[in-house]
Amino acid sequence: MTLNDIWFILFVIIIAGYLILDGFDMGVGILHPFVAKTDMERRVLLNSIGPVWDGNEVWLILGGGVLFAAFPLVYASLFSGFYLAMMAVLLVMILRTVAIEVRSKRESPRWRSAWDTIFGLSSLGLALLLGVAFGNVISGVALDARGNINMTLFDLLTPFALLVGVTTVAMFAMHGAIFLTMKTEGELNTRLRKIIPALTAVFYALNTLAVLAVVAFRSDITQRYLTLVWPIIFPALALVALIVSWYLRRKGQDFWSFVASSAMIALLLFSGAISMFPNLLVSTINPQFNLTIYNASSADNTLTVMLVIALIGMPLVLLYTTGVYYFFRGKVVVEPKSY
Amino acid sequence: MNAELLSRLQFALTASFHFIYPPLSMGLGLMLVVIGIIYVRTKDPKWRRLSFFWVKVYGLIFAIGVATGVVMEFEFGTNWANYSRFVGNIFGSLLAAEGVFAFFLEGGFLGLMLFGGNRLGPRMWLGATFMVVFGAHFSALWIIMANSWMQTPAGYTVQTLPAPARAYMTTFLEVVFTPSFIQRLLHTLGASWTVGSALLLSVSAWYLLRKREVELAQANFKVALPFFVVFSIVNVVFFGAEQAVGVTNYQPVKLASLEGLWESQSCAPIYLFGWVDEAAQTTTGLRIPCVLSFLAYRDFNATVTGLDAFPPAAYPPINLVFQAYHVMINLGMFYILVGLLGAGLFFWKRKIFELRWALWLFVITVFLTLVSTIAGWWTAEVGRQPWIVYGLLPTTLAVSPTLTTTDVAISMVMFLVLYTGLLFVFLFLLNHKIQDGPDPLSEVETTPVSSLPDTFRDIFRRRGARA
Hints:
The complex is a heterodimer of chains A (339) and B (467). Chain A is mainly α.
């Protein structure tokens, strides 16, 4: 295993960490205008993610930093090629932050409902944009010999990318609802439990469509799965995790149901990653222009320094992230000065 | 207007706006740690009230700092793709290290800091606060390290083939400890601590003017004043002056631009204020002879290299650098006066708490400190032009090749609208929190302090018992 392989794996794990953690933040945001009826219920939802959402967003920042450091040519091509989409990502991320911060600072119902709408829409927008970006990475981009992606914003909005986008929205809504079963009580909790089956069904249907689209249009990915066979373990385990999550929720094991839902998100990402390997960006113009983990990476000495940094830093990160989640476990208590 | 110029303006806008928040959070964070230590030692409830109050303010500053910080990290790739390709090996890895070591420390412990007052005993709460503040400083360390490599690159080799041209690391330690790193770090930290102590002074002075929470405001003022006096002096006299020597040695064009020095001369002057006419190549203003020679070489008769020794193509926008630098340095001098005046009026029978004009002076100083930190950043970054990596990569070659003028125009308008709104929201909420004032402990404390877990063992035992 080369340093490039190791960094590919680490990068995928960091993105999985981001999708799992900020995924439920986005899910809570997407559900927020629909599920919570009273002002207090909305505050319970906001405060369920209150102490952790900032830390969760850090995983995306880390993902960006690691892509810049380990595969700078991909970072440069992807971010500049998806320029306006990236700007839209920044816009919704800032709006989401502001909405969480300011929503409960005034009593006025109009003020609060306006920020509730912004919180919901920005969470939805972020999930959709991330899904569309991922859809484009899977289906390939107009990457030329010099590593430039010549696509406008509208070129990115293909039916397939939009399908992946909507699937992502459904996935995070489901994941967020499962997270909230741990955090809420009473009638709100009952209401959340009732909508999870519908959310799961919608997600499952959309995801199946997306998988069928890949099988139908990306023969090289299908071919890889058919020749190697063993990667099938990832989508298979993702399905198992979804079923287990469903089963555990029915048994009232909310925490473990959430763990299973998190595992499913990671496994779906791994399924996509293994189908790309060793490509990071696939060119629709000429396969020779593909950016791979070998031709787009930093030099071995940089990757080694980074690995040392990761080996020192990441165990600490996992230690105190777990500690903070453990500390804030259990049902949400809204205090006068909370969000 | 082309995509490159617009991208530079956009980066200047987003970086300047972002740079309001990190100095505030580092400086305020340091003061929060000080207040926390005083509470743990004295157990006087007024310090606990102040902690609750300032933590609320910190949360707001932090949230906007993070939101605007994500923009910075993405912008290298979106607008400066060729720069990213060139420096990925070096700059990218320092940015990633910032993420691993610093951001998680801040982001992870922030929840405990913001929501810990009623869940953790004073010592554990102070511990969480310390971790967040340490993280903020650690973050500054990595980003100043990365930025210093752009100013005085070292420990690298450039390979042009296979295309694109890229810089490779040769010695990690040289990349870390570039000649300008330590002095630029100290100067930035000194400035941030000045900003933080000025914030405490400003809000305390405001309460004193309004005759609200007088006892609390006086205590708060008294704690912050010595820090402000010391930081304002140290940052100009030691950290700032040290920078002049570094710039002289490694970026002579920047040094000549700071004072609009067109001709190499011994006994070179500084200006108190002035104007540089770049077309006529003249500088006019109120000048003090020989001081620049002293600042650069610690010798009044030393010869300082002027702009005439360099081709015009190597010049930054000289008047802009000159003005930014003079805003910074004059305000820096002004803080020393304000601090000494405050200290004098304090020791002279506590007059400071009664003189309204003096209190007003402290109310406005915090806004000036933010102006001067941003002016300092402009001095450093505009003074580096026309290079993005000094002497290695010109800014014109660094921009993303796929970027169109329309693209950047759209995003520029987006940021202008968004950041105007964000500044408005920030000031609105900050004002709201300050007008609200520190809450009575009876309102914020849901659990008596004595029953909160104050050691690691407590936390696990009691939480375990509750679950």
